[in-house]
């Protein structure tokens, strides 16, 4: 009896496998993609202060004073309070390794904020003003567009059309015709930031040159299409 049941199971699996193969032979899968390129209208950068002193209170006090000066000057130049957010704050001991054993010689305090800029023409002046106010860490300048969501929706539609077009071409290549789409699957979105920025100079005698570049939003879709 067990042998008969095992045989029936094997036969059933063979039938299912044959059906799956037949289904696969009557479909075609294609990947479509589309990219929308935008001109950035927003940017962000990180700016902060690192201070050191033998006394932790002195290092903190100097850091607080410099950081407040940076926030004040950015506010004066039009950056809203909600567009400045603390990104990093740390206090670490500084060690002296010249002796037999490492010994604490002082303390290092770092404070960094992320600044969102909505007027790109202001970026060079904001960077220079922050440095003049005491910033000694400036990094992560990046650009984005407020239209990225709508651009992605456009790219998603175009990627779907591209996938269906490719499926039709693949069907023709084997002498068949593309039938109804059986499924369209979003493969996720990829946002690529293209920005060319010059090396930042601590000499603030002139406005730092900045190139905004472009923002590209890419969508990818997989289409499964029936073959006729």
Please give a structural write-up.
This protein is an alpha+beta fold. It folds into two domains: 27-39 and 147-227, Translation Initiation Factor IF3 (2-Layer Sandwich); 42-144, Alpha-Beta Plaits (2-Layer Sandwich). Helix content is 36%, strand content 40%. The protein contains four helices and seven strands. The strands form two sheets. A four-stranded antiparallel sheet has the order 3-4-2-5. Strand 3 and strand 4 (103-117) form a beta hairpin. Helix 2 runs antiparallel to helix 3 (123-132). The chain is elongated and about 80 Å long. It starts with a helix and ends with a strand. The model is unreliable at 11-23 and 195-205 (pLDDT under 50).
């Amino acid at each position: 009896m067990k042998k008969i049941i095992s045989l029936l199971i094997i036969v059933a699996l063979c039938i299912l496998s044959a059906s799956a193969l037949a289904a696969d032979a009557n479909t075609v899968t294609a990947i479509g993609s589309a990219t929308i390129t935008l001109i950035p209208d927003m940017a962000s950068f990180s700016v902060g202060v690192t201070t050191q002193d033998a006394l932790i209170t002195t290092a903190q006090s100097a850091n607080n004073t410099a950081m407040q000066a940076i926030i004040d000057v950015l506010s004066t130049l039009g950056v809203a309070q909600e567009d400045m957010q603390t990104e990093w704050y740390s206090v670490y001991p500084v060690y002296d390794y010249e002796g037999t054993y490492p010994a604490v010689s002082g303390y290092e305090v770092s404070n960094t904020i992320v600044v969102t800029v909505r007027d790109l023409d202001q970026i060079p002046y904001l960077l220079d003003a922050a440095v003049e106010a005491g910033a000694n860490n400036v990094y992560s300048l990046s650009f984005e567009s407020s239209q990225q969501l709508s651009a992605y929706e456009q790219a998603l539609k175009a990627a779907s059309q591209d996938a269906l077009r490719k499926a039709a071409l693949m069907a023709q290549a084997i002498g068949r015709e593309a039938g109804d789409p059986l499924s369209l699957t979003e493969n996720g979105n990829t946002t690529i930031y293209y920005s060319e920025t010059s090396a930042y100079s601590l000499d603030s005698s002139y406005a730092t040159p900045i190139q905004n570049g472009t923002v590209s939003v890419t969508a990818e879709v997989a289409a499964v299409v029936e073959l006729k």
